[in-house]
Design goal:
heterotrimer; A alpha/beta; B mainly alpha; C mainly alpha; A: alpha/beta; Rossmann fold; six-stranded mixed β-sheet; 19 helices; 20 strands; C: ABC transporter involved in vitamin B12 uptake, BtuC; 14 helices; globular
Chain lengths: 505, 335, 325
Amino acid sequence: MAEASPEPVLELSGIVKTFPGTRALDGVRLELYPGEVTALIGENGAGKSTIVKCLTGIYQPDEGEIRLDGTALRFPTPQAAAAAGVTAIHQETVLFDDLTVAENIFLGHAPRTRFGLIDKGEMRRKAAAILKGIGAEIDPDVLLKDLGIASKHLVAISRALSIDARVVIMDEPTAALSHKEIEELYELVDELKRQGKAILFISHKFDEIFRISDRYTVFRDGQFVGAGRMAETTEADLVRMMVGRSVEQIYPKRAPRIGGEVLRVAGYSHPTEFEDIGFSLRQGEILGFYGLVGAGRSEFMQALIGLTKPSKGVVKMGDKVLAIRSPAEAIEAGIVYVPEDRGKQGAITQLPIFQNVTLPSLAQTSRNGFLRMAEEFKLARDYTQRLDLRAASLDTPVGALSGGNQQKVVIAKWLATKPKVIILDEPTKGIDIGSKAAVHDFMSELAGEGLSVIMVSSEIPEILGMSDRVIVMREGRIAAELEGDALTPETLVRHAAGISAAEAA
Amino acid sequence: MSLADPDMVPAPRQIPDRLASPAAKLLKSWESLLLLVAVAVFILNSFASPYFLDAWSLSDATFNFTEKAMIAFAMALLIIAGEIDLSVASIIALCSTAMGVVMQMGGGTGALVFTGLAVGLSCGAFNGLLVTRLGLPSIVVTIGTMSLFRGISYIVLGDGAFRGYPEGFAWFGQGYVFWVITVEMVIFTLLAIVFGVVLHKTNFGRQVYAIGNNSTAALFSGIRVQRVKMILFLLTGLMSGLAAVCLTSRLGSTRPSIASGMELEVVTMVVLGGVSILGGSGSIPGVVIAAILMGLVTFGLGLLNVPGIVMSIFIGLMLIGVIAVPRLFKMARGK
Amino acid sequence: MSILKHRETLLVAVIAAMLALIASRFPGFVTPGNLAAVFTDTAPLMILALGQMAVILTRCIDLSVAANLALTGMAVALLNTVAPGLPVVLTIALAIGMGALMGAINGLLVWKLDIPSIVVTLGTMTIFRGIIFLISDGQWVNAHEMSANFTGFPRIEILGLPVLAWIAIIAIAAMGLVMSRTVLGRSIFAAGSNPHAAAYTGIDVGRTQFAAFVISGALAGLTGYLWIARYAVAYVDIAGGFELDVVAACVIGGISIAGGVGTVAGAVLGALFLGVIKNALPVVDISPFWQLAISGAAILIAVAFNARAGRSKGRVILKSAEHAA
């Protein structure tokens, strides 16, 4: 904890980047120091991705200065950024499934022979050396697609090391990793620090940020809010800087009125994805499904609505046994699933708002198979108003809306089918705090009106703040069902990670 | 359930249904531009040749597009849904060959028409099953069936031909309903209306757009994506069968090379009509105007004694030009 | 890795089985001399398939190769009638350059205007054919109008193989080197495998597609000269529909139309598969009219097989299933 602050390796000041309609970055600054991890904190839309893209030569800032070791320079192309020693490990693994590990590591800067050809032997040797250096047991000759997500991350990190990076940007590197893999990543970050690399770490998880960062920088709405040493701040301070208000008010207070059983699932199994899932859902209840990413929650929900075929199991709604073979049948039965991936599975971004809302309800708005526009607009208006949608008009394409408003359209779309059970998969992932609160308020309002809600979420505060009861899944099975006093962050994490109480204590 | 009753909740604010009126949108649309070009070509043609503005020659001119347009309507739906069928011309060859076989077995007009339509439908079913059941990319499947279907015609006919179709059969491709109005023209008009209504005014049409823009989201929204695609392949096959009936009737003979290269003209017609080759957008009025425009250009060049192969240069230029020119303008303005 | 290797081995096995079957009744077909003739006959298809492979790997398709071939062929044939003394090397260089230029036109439209390649090449295919008519006035250029060295060059035998076959071998070797050992080759794979990621890596996807089209065009131009010289005739419709055979060779060779997956060996084997069938049909006394249907069926079987091999198996979450699977 020596206070001898070295000179920053990389220094950004007054960076401005505008896009049609928005000012993504409005004069922000950022400093990265050798051998230190700087956490970049901010809500989605605060400008984190934009600054990463400016740093890696994907975007050109409109104004401002980038200084490396005190010299001002520009990154007109990704290669220029790489040549200057700045590299990024991205949110989505930006690697190539059909190339080998060694080729992935050296794409764009492969060792050459005297004739200018790629020197495969040398490339393989170097790749093996780098992989060994970070303790990864990966064969440089295998195709990337044959690796798991964690191994792909290691390849991405090896790539960063291969260009002899001085600045490593890690954009949500733990998003898809298991606990064990995350621990291994932390060790790797420590190793990078020892080598004197400056690391920019972007994450939404505060435990992670406090675990490995030395400094922080906070952005809000494209502006610089503050920076400092982690040792001199608290989680509450950071959240306040990030959202500009306190955290307490985010979750609505509610007094649930829970009725009789609406849905019962028993012995639901799939050959490879989940096994023996059983639970009961009552009217007006919000049932949380917690687990680590990849625990099989989404897979189970998607099987429940008929997207994948389960091998066995019973679904009963009231006294009726359901055999759902497609989402269309699920909607008819009154069970709807609001998927996690808005852009790919939820909304049809090119189509106007009203057409998105009415898509699953066309039977309702049409007559004899013929469209009735007036009915469509009415339905769309009714449901989008309830969610306080902000849009110029109902025939605006959904793609033109912000993430939060897109999510409102998506929820409106499935609500318009008048379901009895609504399954929300990560309903607030990647949307701004304001929309998040609107979605949470609306969820409790819906439950208050007697709708049964299943909420899949990986965010502990959301699970704790919203659910009446929580089912924890681990490796495709139900690990625990928690309620009342048993529902604490510790019990959730313990069951999700498979740590016994004794071990945890 | 009270949930179903949103009127109970006070409206926070009103979002307008539309900003621009539909009429204003129409003026700026691709279809309007296309119509303008068609009118211009029409006027040019009438200057170019004194024979052009004659009811009978105009009636003849419609044969340049009616058969292709029948397929183009179904193809438009298929392309909007994000698939393509390159085998349509080969389906015509197979249908025509099958009709020839039935004719030689002594089949009458009714049997011939039934054969043509049934074989067309079967070919569509074959393509559709390969795409929807096995999940194969339609472009490869239909490049394969393009060879397969026409290949079967070659196996049957070799370098021979079927001739001598019954007299009644000639009605489809050579008959007139009233004065200069051909049977094919009437079929074209009816199909234009039916396909226009199906695409723009029904749930089915809406689902076609949804699938073409994002088939995953469409599936999650309860649309039976594979079923819709299957129907579209069947329709395309059926329309190819109908075109085969008309074309065979008009030519009065079947060779295995019949309608060769027609798939390109059909796709050109669809793309010229403003349908995005990537799926998700386009309209039937656009395809109708494009069909007429292509007919006018072909006919006009014919009046000027420009050989057919040179006309294809114009078709090719149009296909690329209609997409390239607006993009060039946008790039120029972007600077 | 194993699947890819497996696919090519399988194709070799299929071709070998086919040859064995034919040999059981017509041993003359598998004599070295005849096999060399089959290889030579398939040379144009192999050369074109190499170019098409590069284009398909970048998620595009080039339907204009046959028209490009025909136009280049007609141009050099006409040039030969005017200047019969022109050295063949110069003619070949001209053909390659002309083909590359046409490929560049396709590539520019795809790269700069972002027009889907299927639309671009459908268009240029008809335009190129039309231009042949314009420059030839619809006339044929026949053998007696061409000079002896012009038509003779592809037939010159070196070490028992005609120059045509050697050129194919050189093209295969060169493409093999380009695809596996050059930055361009890796970029072609990367751009098709994951265009988004390629951009992050600093690969200009559009430019890579442009380069693939230029390669395809250059090879089509080269084939244009070889084709015209070999058959000693040039006319508007020459090699009509041959683009489908080329795409078929690629599909049969396991090159994925979705981009990013495929090998030089696959393209060559796919072409050889079609070449063996074409040459075997008259030998086993099946009408050549069967050829089209057979190649169509082969495409369908190949694409169905490739899809099966490449199908993702879904997630394995359950511990118990992990060992079972």
